[in-house]
Amino acid sequence: MIDRFRRTWLAWFVIATVALIALIPEAFSQDGTARVIQVKIEKRKVVAPKRAIRITENEVVELRWSSDEAVKLHLHGYDKELKVRPGKPASMSIKARATGRFPITSHGWGQGGHGHHALTYLEVHPR
What we know:
Elements: H1 2-30, E1 35-42, E2 45-48, E3 53-56, E4 60-67, E5 71-75, E6 80-84, E7 90-95, E8 100-109, E9 118-125
Parallel strand pairs: 1-4, 3-9
Antiparallel strand pairs: 1-2, 4-7, 5-6, 5-8, 8-9
């Protein structure tokens, strides 16, 4: 009887330990340890990073935008908007819950010029 109790207790201990280990990355992402990615726009084009922004599912990132012209940005799929003004970097925080390739578009340049083309893409890869 005691041997059976020990095996049952050990099984529950292992299950609890595995569950706790699985939650540790989630806990670290929620305490403000976001990865920072600098994104720079010049002459209405993203010049850094040169390729799509690549992150992993469940990752927390902060996109720090700078631009030589006022622009309103929209991250499709996550439905986030952000205004960036010249000389005043702006941040967009993302918890990558959905995987896929999401366009980041301009919804207005300078004094109202509207552009709705993709400046870059956010690629969220599965874990």
